[in-house]
Design brief:
The protein is of the alpha/beta class and 623 residues long. It is built from 24 helices and ten strands. The protein has helices spanning 2-5, 9-41, 46-95, 98-103, 106-147, 149-156, 159-196, 198-203, 207-259, 265-277, 279-306, 368-374, 398-403, 419-423, 432-441, 445-449, 468-481, 501-511, 524-527, 547-553, 555-565, 573-584, 588-592, 617-622, and strands at residues 328-335, 345-352, 357-362, 383-388, 391-392, 405-408, 486-490, 516-520, 532-537, 540-545. The chain has a six-stranded mixed β-sheet, with helices on both faces. Helix 18 (501-511) links the parallel strand 7 and strand 8 (516-520).
Length: 623
């Protein structure tokens, strides 16, 4: 928090300086009022009375101006600190590695970026205001001690009890506020997950379950809030009561002194004003103590994120990738997720030649998606090397590396923005012609033009207003617009209706031309897009070759395909024929044409004139 406050000390000093003028004017008013009584009113001197009235009026103007400057300085600094901390936290979260986000809850992170930072903002606002109040307290104590030490003793005799109460209050309040911030974060998590997964919640009719979870978390927040309120309820009245008891003592003893002629009436009036003036600084101190506990807990939670070091380190001054065809190599690569124990990849050796399309095939847990995640350094390998055009990916600028690798994920994520903004996400400055070209290559241009506002149509949350195939084609267009030298298709058609899968494949054929492509697939028709098939098992390559070669030579490959099409036949002639037909259906000519010579076909290959499938035997076989 100190690092966030430091750049804005100028505004803090403005607030403190204005507070000093405000304090001087405020503590001068009772003195002037006492002199007006003693020198003017009691002596029936109208001129002297009006002189002090004028001085008090001028002091009031100074107070008003100083109050405005003090509050503006305090709020200006606090709002800038809040903004800087939120930007710093967001930037740090963006830099943190995938393993961190695998474990972190989105709702928790949102709570730290909003609720926790707002709590820090509150204590920053109170800082200049509390400094000014402290100056008032010091000034008042000094004046009343110099005026009458005995009266000062009566007035301030209750302060040690207030100090004891403040110590106990702080000790009890701190754990309560920490638990409150944690419960607020848990509540935020329930809300975020309920809204993000609203389709699952409604699909299972589980609204009552989520409502019960929310009720539980809300009750926990209520309990912690009421506990904090009870602590304030016994402490803050003491802040009002103890100075008032001092005032009673002053009126009793000071009034006797006035009647005995030992002290002037104006002096006791000023004295009483000073005692009343102590109430607000003490209340400010109480507020600061209560808020400081909560802000400290909130700042600790924010610091917990900021102190987490990214696991993916970038060498300072890392060079950019040299020009190249996109040759990708895995050399004796070993990798495991955290403390999982058994490595996911174990001595993996794999080469993708520039411009080649390679399909990774294997059973669930064989390491296919892990291979895709290591190319853009979402994770760092434990041993071996991953190179792109001969350069170790760990020696390259992260930004340049990830701009050179385009990924279409299985779970397509689109932003709640226009279609154009989603496609041009990697290059917001891309012109409309570039966006249209990317959409055409992805086979998305026709359905986009049919949308109510075309490319300016704002899609719903995560693009759920579109069909699965439409979302996937927009995701492909987004990857294409970035012009990557390596394209990774991570089960890019698995979530698409098999009857519409041919539309995605037709788009992929053109997109993959002259571009190194890594295809993670389990559907036979998607595997057919590749020049070469690599079979993985327990993180190792156990077979590779063309589809026909593996179909003939690898029982494991036949088993993976059989599982994909729901067949039990692996070694029988009929079973092998069925597997071969599943891949060849609608793609016979694709398997016979070299990858570099592929074209989309005049009508989009397998589509009718409007871009929609006239039939999909591949999808039917794959399903």
């Amino acid at each position: 928090m100190r690092r966030a406050v430091r750049p804005h000390w100028g505004w803090a000093m403005l607030g403190v300086g204005a507070g000093a003028f405000w304090t001087a004017a405020r503590v001068s008013v009772p003195l002037m009022a006492g002199l007006a009584i003693d020198e003017g009113i009691l002596k029936h001197d109208m001129g002297t009375t009006m002189k002090y009235v004028g001085i008090i009026l001028a002091l009031g103007v100074v107070q008003a101006i100083a109050t405005g400057l003090r509050r503006y300085g305090a709020f200006r600094m606090a709002l800038r600190v809040e903004t800087d901390m939120r930007q710093q936290l967001f930037a740090h979260l963006q830099r943190l590695h995938f393993a961190f986000h695998d474990q972190a809850q989105t709702g928790q992170l949102m709570a730290r970026a909003n609720t926790d930072i707002q709590q820090v903002n509150t204590v920053v606002i109170l800082f200049p205001l509390t400094v000014a109040s402290s100056l008032v307290l010091i000034s008042v104590v000094t004046i009343i001690v110099l005026t009458s030490p005995l009266l000062a003793l009566l007035a301030l005799g209750t302060l040690p009890f207030l100090n004891i109460a403040a110590t106990l209050f702080t000790k009890k309040m701190q754990p309560v506020t920490l638990h409150l911030q944690e419960e607020l974060a848990e509540l935020s998590s329930v809300v975020e997950e309920s809204f993000s997964g609203v389709r699952v919640v409604k699909g299972f009719g589980a609204e009552s379950i989520q409502a019960a979870q929310l009720d539980h978390r809300a009750d926990q927040v209520l309990d912690r809030s009421l506990e904090a309120a009870r602590l304030r309820a016994w402490f803050l009245p003491l802040v009002d009561l103890l100075p008032t008891m001092g005032l009673v003592a002053i009126l009793g003893y000071g009034g006797t002194l006035v009647l005995q002629g030992k002290i002037e009436l104006g002096t006791i009036v000023a004295f009483n004003s000073y005692i009343l003036m102590l109430i607000w600084p003490l209340r400010m101190a109480g507020m600061l103590l209560g808020q400081a506990s909560r802000s400290s807990a909130a700042a600790g939670r924010v610091h917990e994120i900021l102190s987490t070091d990214p696991a993916i380190h970038e060498v300072v001054g890392s060079p950019e990738l040299p020009p190249g065809p996109g040759e990708l190599r895995f050399e004796n690569v070993t990798f495991g997720y955290g403390n999982a124990g058994t490595p996911v990849l174990d001595g993996l050796d794999l080469v993708l030649r520039g411009g080649e399309a390679v399909a990774l095939v294997g059973a669930t847990g064989s390491g296919k998606s892990t291979v895709a995640r290591l190319v853009p350094r979402f994770y760092d390998i434990d041993a071996g090397r991953v190179t792109l055009d001969g350069i170790d990916v760990r020696d390259v600028s992260l930004v340049n590396l990830r701009q050179s690798v385009g990924i279409v994920f299985e779970d397509t994520f689109l932003f709640s923005d226009s279609v154009r903004e989603n496609i041009s996400f990697a290059d917001p400055e891309a012109d409309m012609d570039t966006v249209r070209d990317a959409a055409r290559l992805a086979g998305a241009d026709r359905f986009i033009d049919a949308l109510p506002e075309g490319y300016d149509t704002v899609i719903g949350e995560q693009g759920f207003s579109l069909s699965g195939g439409q979302r996937q084609r927009i995701a492909i267009a987004r990857a294409v617009l970035a012009q990557p030298r390596v394209l990774i298709l991570d089960d890019a058609t698995s979530s698409v209706d098999p009857t519409k899968e041919h539309e995605i494949r037709a788009a992929l054929r053109e997109v993959m031309q002259d571009r190194t492509t890594l295809i993670i697939a389990h559907r036979p028709a998607t595997i057919a897009l590749a020049d070469r098939v690599v079979l993985l098992d327990h993180g190792k390559v156990i077979a590779e070759g063309t589809h026909q070669e593996l179909l003939a030579s690898s029982r494991e490959y036949r088993a993976v395909l059989a599982q994909a099409i729901g067949s039990d036949a692996v070694d029988t002639p009929a079973g092998a024929a069925a597997l071969d037909a599943a891949v060849h259906a609608d793609d016979d000519e694709l398997l016979e044409v070299p990858h570099g010579a592929r074209t989309a076909g005049g009508d989009g290959h397998g589509t009718n004139g409007d871009g929609h499938g006239a039939g999909d035997p591949v999808g039917e076989a794959a399903s």
